[in-house]
Structures
1.
Amino acid sequence: MNDLLPGRLNLWYDLESAIRNVVEAYGYREIRTPLLEHTELFERSIGEQTDIVEKEMYTFRDNNGDSLTLRPEATAACVRAGIEHGFLYNQTQRLWYLGPMFRHERPQKGRYRQFHQFGIEALGWRGPDIDAEILLVGTRLWRQLGLTGLRLEINTLGSNEARSMFRESLQTYLSGRREEIDDDSRRRLQTNPLRILDSKDPDTQKVLEDGPDLSDYLGDEARANFDTLQNLLTANGVEYHVNTRLVRGLDYYTGPVFEWTTGSMGAQNAICAGGRYDELVSQLGGRGMPAAGFACGLERLVDLYENSGGSDNAEPHDVWICVLTEDAASQGFLLAEHLRDQHLKVIVNCGGGGLRKQLKKADQSGARFAVVIGEDELRSQTLTLKSLRTDEVQIRLTKAELVEYLKPAC
Ligand code: HAM
């Protein structure tokens, strides 16, 4: 779990404001749900045989004996909130969220136990138009942030029947070659065979090459929807690659799934991923409704943004006010409030010190101007203005003149 320190947060602010701009341009509305949910919500949605539920959740009992879990993702919570507040009933919703998620994974670069996701969920549309829209949201965000080199892979998991037929034939095929696949995949053979397609083990991948292909099991409707999705992407200039081995680590997916990866970040290369989950609303007790969405790992996105030239430079303050006596300090605070009313960023020197020391601090702060208030200034009801970034000589001004001078300059 990371501390996000002041120096780095400007990158996050850039990202957060780009995200807000983009999602609002598509009509998505923000939702904020609690960090804690009943454990059962994640067991029923993500699936009991998944890595997340089997070994990565922070789960504990509260004083009432209820089992609670720090949210490992937010899709289930959006659906839970929609059902609870009735805003999914006979309606469509475009939602977005941003916040911390928790998974007890082995930490490494790009993989943390507390991380942040930004995500969107579109509830109530069957696709493939909304599937294309969701992919356009991501594409626009990468463009707005100046990110290049992201690779979009898409696949479709087809209907429940298609998937279960494929699962069966994959299971039969791999059982025949169980000695050749890795331990983890052997374990998954009984519990979650589709996840074996995801295995990073080269021997397992080799065995899979001769195995059944999910695309051969798709029904006409899934195939037609997937074709339309691809046409929409091509017509909108979105580059993509079909990867028939792409499956997801959460059980709720039903149709098209996708993942954006980067080649520049080592093993943790998935930046954003999602897909369609048409069964989840009814599975969690609501009236059945189609849905799709994605979530994006912000730590990974921040790294990528920084590598592509994003800057973590804070805008420096406009003015540093040096105060040389106790009365000057009191006047300094009044002046600072007045300047802040004019939307200037102002620091009043705190902690005392002589003029030289205060001017040095002002200079180091990056502020453009220093204003000095000492006994002379108090007596003559003026202020001394010194430009810290040019050679202009210092000048004496009244408070009104100072405001007039600074407003256009800053
Ligand atoms: P996910 O693939 O589990 O999907 O996570 C989405 C993204 O979150 C990943 O691609 C990655 O960028 C980031 N991420 C996941 N785990 C970590 C971690 N431990 N440290 C840093 N980043 C991480 C979901 O969570 C689904 N809820 C996505 C979705 C939304 N599907 C439909 N709607």
Note: DSSP finds 15 helices and 16 strands in the chain.
2.
Amino acid sequence: MQENNRTASLVKTMKEQITADLAEAKTPEQVEQIRIKYLGKKGLVTNFAKNTDFAKLPPDEKKNFGQQLNDLKNFAAEKIQESADNAAKLDSAQNKHRRQIDLTVPLTAAFQRSGSAHPIAHVQSELETIFEGMGFCVLDSPECETEYGNFESVNIPADHPARDMQDTFWLQNEMVLRTHTSANQVRALKRFGAPFRGIFPGRCFRYESIDPSHENTFFQCEGLMVDKGISVANLIGVMKTLLGEIFKRDVLVRLRPGFFPFVEPGFELDLNCLFCGGKGCPACGDGWMELIPCGLVHPNVLRNADIDPNEYSGFAFGVGLTRLAMMKFGIRDIRYFNSGDVRVLEQFQPLV
Ligand code: FA5
């Protein structure tokens, strides 16, 4: 009687173990492993009798043991088969799903639309090629800046009126969405030292009234060259190369004095509007598109980057990349860029 109880308890434990193992098995291969573990030649159920004291049992208890063993074998076989069927069904459903993605099927018309580079990305890529040809490096820079980076590092202290011209979005952690790519000047100079030649294209943000030539989110491309003996002549030479390469034809520009706290002297380089030929239109206003403010790097900026202004000088410029894309592609209203209207993008050819 005692033996019968012991066998019943062993059978119960084994059944629980089988159930627990099967609950973990998800694939047909995993279920097969469990089948081998219990019902294989050396399986725990197959050899259940061997692993117990069956041989020593009195004849009447042997009968009971045999019944319990059969019950266990049936239980194991049924449960394992059930799990194998389920795993096979799941596997075939997944395979069917996988088979639905057939990369060799010819594209239908709906999928044949090829993408194209965004006009701003296109112009940015052109600028990078032009400047790399002149030995400039291309740097990435953060869109989210410290107040020091965006303003103080480029000689705009807290009480300076120039801050009003670049009203911006402040974050809760007292960082700002940068108003200009000039914010990266001192960081780049500190990292690489002088001499230095680099451009840093990127997105800028300002709290602006939106109109055909002003957006709250737009792109600039900063350029910075610092070396011994750099003058306005170097600046003008580089500007001429830039415009010649971008427009591939003669364009009319004007250089006029401009004030920026981080350059001295400072200039505004305006492009005679390619839409109206200088007569004045909604895109430009008075016939001239403000495109590339520039100047010689202010000594304070060099000092902020630990560079001696008595030894080194430099020029800097900030191309309005979005406006350049407008002029290059004949887009008369800056608001198209952020409108999310795919028809705007579809008009431009892919880069490759
Ligand atoms: C600046 O941002 C200076 N950091 C540029 C600079 C760099 C000057 C280095 C001297 C030396 P400004 O605010 O003018 O300058 O902007 C530069 C260009 O960005 C403008 O000429 C214009 O093309 C473009 N820009 C400015 N604000 C907007 C706007 N709201 N939407 C579209 N383009 C803009």
Note: The chain has two domains: 2-100, 119-345.
